[in-house]
Amino acid sequence: MDTIPAVGLTTTEAPFIEQAKTEGKLYIQQPYELYSPENHEAWKKLYHRIIPRWQKYANEHFLRGIDSLCLNSGAVPRLDDVNRFLKPLTGFKAKAVSGYVPAFLFFDCLRNREFPTTITIRRSDKLDYLPEPDIFHDVAGHVPMHTDKAFAETLVRFGESAHTAAELVSGIGDERRRIRTLTSIIKAMARFFWFTVEFGLMRGADGLRVYGSGLLSSYGEIEHAVESPEVQRYPIQLEWAVNQAFEIDHYQPLLFIVESFDHLFDLVGRLERWMKSGKLNNVAPGEPAVNEQDLKSFLEAGPRT
């Protein structure tokens, strides 16, 4: 197959994004005119092929959200249009970013009802796996969940807990202990987010349904998560989730089930209480790695406003 020219806003092939990174711009505007016909074709293929699986496996809150957002199935969405439908429902909005958002900044965006949103899209000949988020994952996977008030409040609560973490470690005088403690807390938060917001399952009237965005944006894994005998599925236990390592480059072999978004909200509250009591200071080693950007973002965090 011939190589597709590096034009438009294709993931890892977008000059606009590289320029923004070079200039140190994390929060950007979506340059809609730069999307190529191939970019729009990739969105169309992704969207149309996954619709039957959403109807079969997605939770009811997501399905209502998709309807509420009035997404264009034939072209990459304009974030301004997405926000026009989203913001009146829960106050959330999609906020365009140029790439990786350090952990504290990401959670602080959630606290302020902003969701950092990637604007590039995968190639149309490589639809099935992408090791990093793209606009299909973020807008078609995450954003419909943000139309649900209970889920939105859970994300805001999660964002609040990041400020709690920053304030807690700022009071630790010994630098080595401060870094060690913060690394453990970030690891625990990342694992909890992964096993709930990204890869969570929920009980419904018709059995298990998907609410995790990593599943909702994956044509293959959304079915695998519910149907495959190779997947272990358990009612979520906070102590298990925060100590469970995960890998991103294959279908998830272990998934956790919540009863409702009220249940999830309560779990975030318990996570924060555990944080305050020191129960997250020494979670099990393993993935995910906590990089220097993540640590720095917490250490430089100012007081909450």
What's the gist of this structure?
With 305 residues, the chain is of the alpha/beta class. Helices cover 51% and strands 9% of the residues.
CATH T-level topology: Phenylalanine Hydroxylase
- Principal-axis shape equals globular
Q: What is the helix fraction of residues, given as a range?
A: 40-55%
Order of helices and strands: HHHHEHEHHHEEHHEHEHH
Radius of gyration: 19 Å
Q: Which stretches of 5+ consecutive residues score pLDDT under 50?
A: 1-6
What is the end-to-end distance? 53 Å
* Count of distinct structural domains: 1
Biggest sheet features: 4 strands, mixed
Q: What is the number of helical segments per DSSP (H or I, 4+ residues)?
A: 13
Let me know the average pLDDT.
Answer: 94
Show the helix and strand layout.
Layout: H1 15-22, H2 37-57, H3 60-69, H4 79-90, E1 93-97, H5 103-111, E2 114-118, H6 135-142, H7 149-170, H8 175-198, E3 201-204, E4 207-210, H9 213-216, H10 219-227, E5 232-235, H11 238-241, E6 254-258, H12 261-277, H13 292-299
Parallel strand pairs: 1-2, 3-6, 5-6
Antiparallel strand pairs: 3-4
